[in-house]
Fold this protein.
Amino acid sequence: MPTILHLVGPGGSGKTSVGPLLGALLNWRFLDLDAEFMRSEGDIAQCIGTHGHEGYARRNLSVYLALRQAANVPTVLALSSGFMAYAADIDPGYATVRRDIEANPLTALLLPSFELEPCVETIVKRQLARPYLAGNSAREEQRIRERFPLFMALQCTRFRSDSSPMQIASEVERFARSTLSTLAGEHMQSVVSRPSTRPT
């Protein structure tokens, strides 16, 4: 399966700002799950209004799986803000997908702070600066407060996203190259250590 680096984090954590820069640094394709959902399924808010949040989540999972199956080149993939926080029973396969993403050595979690209050303050400020979201302070604060413990519990590599997008992208690039080098070394070691099946 092609290499995929997942960018995980709440809305306002910097995934869509860092992702294209990271893709360019690695010379990989960049995909934004939200953008791909809107391309194939239509407006997200309208989908939620019609099918409810669980219906949207199931459709978003399907879009993700289709992207993963179709991937034929190394890819940086920015996940939707709530993708890792869906209810476990939205789809029979969701729990496995979530575990696979969390366990992937290349998964990177972006948060402006690893402490709750500074994270909430920054995320709410960034989200309210996006007029197309038509958000409000109370709703954005509630969302990040609910999801912050879920993100912090993820067993993947964390990056603070409180610097410039290029600085963050460069840090994640170094992490990705180091991880890929380690994985390549482990693969070669396993090949060398494999017992020979040739006749003596």
Summary: The mean pLDDT is 91. The chain has seven helices and five strands. The beta strands are 4-8, 29-32, 75-78, 108-111, 157-160. The CA atoms of residues 191 and 197 lie 12 Å apart.
